[in-house]
Each structure stands twice: as C-alpha cells, then as structure tokens.
Amino acid sequence: MRRTRAALMRAAVALVTDRGTANIPVSDIADTAGVSRQLVYLHYGDRENLLLEAALDLARGDLADLRDGGRAGRERALTVARHFAAHREFYRSIFSSGSAFAFNKALSRVLTPLEAGDGSDDADPLAEDFAVFVANGTTALVAAWVTEGDEALDPEAMADRLLAVGGIAMAAAGGLKRPVADCS
Length: 184
What we know:
CATH topology: Tetracycline Repressor, domain 2
Mean pLDDT: 85
Structural class: mainly alpha
Radius of gyration: 18 Å
Low-confidence stretches: 178-184
Helix content: 55-70%
CATH class: Mainly Alpha
Number of helices: 9
Distance between the termini: 54 Å
C-alpha cells in the first residue's frame, strides 16, 4: 500500500505541475501511477481528496520539522518560502482548486508554530489562538505570493516579508496574557 500511495502522490504532483491545472482526470493519475482507477476511488474517494493528500504529503515532507522546533526565525521563513517557490506550479493549481479550502486549513496546522489545543490545563488559550492566527495569515500570504503574477518568486524576499509581518504581529500582541478586552 505504501508503494501505491507514493506512486499516486508522485503522479498527482507531476501531472498537476506539468499541466498547470488540478483538473486532471483520475484515470490519468491512476495510469501514471500504474494503478487502477478503482483503487484511487477506494482509497481517496475522489480526485479532490487525492490532490489534497498529495499537496499535504509534499508540504509535510519539506516542512515537517517546523512544528517540532527544528528551525526558527529566518531559517524557518526561508524553508517555507523555498518550498513553495520550488513547487509553485503545483501549489498555484492547488490553491485555486476544489481542494483549496481544505488545503489552506490543513496547511495552517502544518505552519502553526505552537501546539494548539494540547489539552493541558496550563495552556494559554490566547497564545494558542494567536498561533493559529499567525499560521492562517502566513498561509494566506504564501498563497497570494504563489498564485499572483507570473514573475519569478524570490524566496529570500518572501522570507523577509514573512519575518516583517510576523514581527509586527508579535509587537502588536505584546502581552498575550492580557484579556482581549484590554487590548486597545
């Protein structure tokens, strides 16, 4: 099953990238992966779920260590920017496909810098909310960067943008322990 899954993920990414659209027939993805169309439907239900899984698999492959503190600051921002620049054609199609909403939501979880909702009694709900807010904003900024315009993407400049916006958000947040009503 792992080999079949990997073949389907590779086929989906390659076909979407090559054709510049997520509107790829399931039969083309199955043929490229060397599996039956029925197998794709059995495991993924439909093309949108398959493409969502392919996009998440690709993102998690390069961005997995962001959540466990493997990278911070500029290195973290550069990792994100370089990943999306390297796979721009694929993500451009995914961000404008039927999978876009689900992908944005899942990608935000990948990019969330803190463990939100870990269930501990001492977790700061405002800090968790702030982490989700920052991750969603990062996802939106990256999506706009990848999808708008045809000019070459500059990961260094995008990393600087992400850091600048993050710095503004952190400065504005100041003391996360304050109640929302006191944030005026």
